[in-house]
C-alpha cells in the first residue's frame, strides 16, 4: 500500500517513514505544502498523512485545493493543533480522519488501513475472494484455510487486486501501488508477480483482460 507522507519535521518524518515501511507500507515523503498538493493531485497514493503546519502552503489550504480539484485520496491529518475549532476546520476542509501528535505508530497504521478499506467499499479488515483470505494488519494470506508465505511484492499486489475485486487494474496502476519513489521497476515485474500468484492460488482467481490489465474475481466463474 503506497502512502503519501507530508511532514516538515525531519526527525518525525524520518521516524514515520521508517516505521510505516517496517509495517508494510510504501511511503513517499514530502516536506512542503506545494509538494504535498502536487502529489495529492497526482492521485497515485492509496492514502495520505498530512501535517497542517507545512512551509510554503498550509496543510488546510493543500487539502482544500486537492478536494476542489476532485481528488478523492483519503487524507489523515496529523497535527499538534488540538483546539476544537482546528479539528472542525480540518474535517470541513475534507479530511477523513484527524489525529493529534504524538501518535502511536501501530494506531496510525490501523487508521490508514481503515481509511483505504472504506474508500474501496470494504466493510471488514480481512478481505475474502473465493477461498482466499488476506489480512492486511497481520500481512497473512490463507487459501482454503492454509497459511501461505508470500514475498512482500506478491502480498502487496494481491492486496491491491482484492481491494479492487471486480475492477480491471492496468499494469501502470499496479506498479504505482507497489513501488514508492526511488524503487527500480523492472519492465515485466507485474507479470512475473502475477505468474507466481497464480501458481500459489490457482488460475481461477486472477484474470488477464487482454490489452487492459488484470482483475480479481470475488466469486469463481461459472463453468
From TrEMBL:
Keywords: Cytoplasm, DNA-binding, Phosphoprotein, Transcription, Transcription regulation, Two-component regulatory system. Pfam families: Response_reg, Trans_reg_C. The keyword Cell cycle does not apply. It is found in: Cytoplasm. The modification 4-aspartylphosphate is found at residue 51. Residues 124-218 form the OmpR/PhoB-type domain. Residues 124-218 bind DNA. This is Winged helix-turn-helix domain-containing protein. It comes from Ramlibacter alkalitolerans.
Amino acid at each position: 500500500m503506497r502512502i503519501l507522507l507530508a511532514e516538515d519535521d525531519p526527525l518525525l518524518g524520518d521516524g514515520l517513514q521508517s516505521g510505516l515501511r517496517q509495517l508494510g507500507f510504501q511511503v513517499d515523503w514530502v516536506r512542503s505544502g506545494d509538494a504535498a498538493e502536487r502529489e495529492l493531485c497526482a492521485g497515485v497514493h492509496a492514502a495520505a498523512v498530512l501535517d497542517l503546519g507545512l512551509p510554503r502552503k498550509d496543510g488546510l489550504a493543500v487539502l482544500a485545493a486537492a478536494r476542489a480539484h476532485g481528488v478523492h485520496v483519503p487524507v489523515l491529518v496529523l497535527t499538534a493543533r488540538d483546539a476544537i475549532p482546528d479539528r472542525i476546520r480540518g474535517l470541513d476542509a475534507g479530511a477523513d480522519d484527524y489525529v493529534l501528535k504524538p501518535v502511536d505508530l501501530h494506531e496510525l497504521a490501523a487508521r490508514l488501513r481503515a481509511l483505504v478499506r472504506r474508500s474501496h467499499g470494504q466493510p471488514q479488515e480481512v478481505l475474502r475472494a473465493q477461498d482466499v483470505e488476506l489480512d492486511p494488519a497481520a500481512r497473512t494470506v490463507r487459501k482454503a484455510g492454509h497459511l501461505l508465505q508470500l514475498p512482500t511484492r506478491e502480498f502487496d499486489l494481491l492486496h491491491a487486486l482484492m481491494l479492487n475485486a471486480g475492477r480491471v487494474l492496468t499494469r501502470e496502476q499496479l506498479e504505482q501501488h507497489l513501488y514508492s519513489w526511488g524503487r527500480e521497476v523492472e519492465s515485466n515485474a507485474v507479470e512475473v508477480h502475477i505468474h507466481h500468484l497464480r501458481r500459489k492460488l490457482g488460475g481461477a482467481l486472477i484474470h488477464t483482460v487482454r490489452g487492459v490489465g488484470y482483475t480479481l474475481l470475488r466469486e469463481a466463474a461459472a463453468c
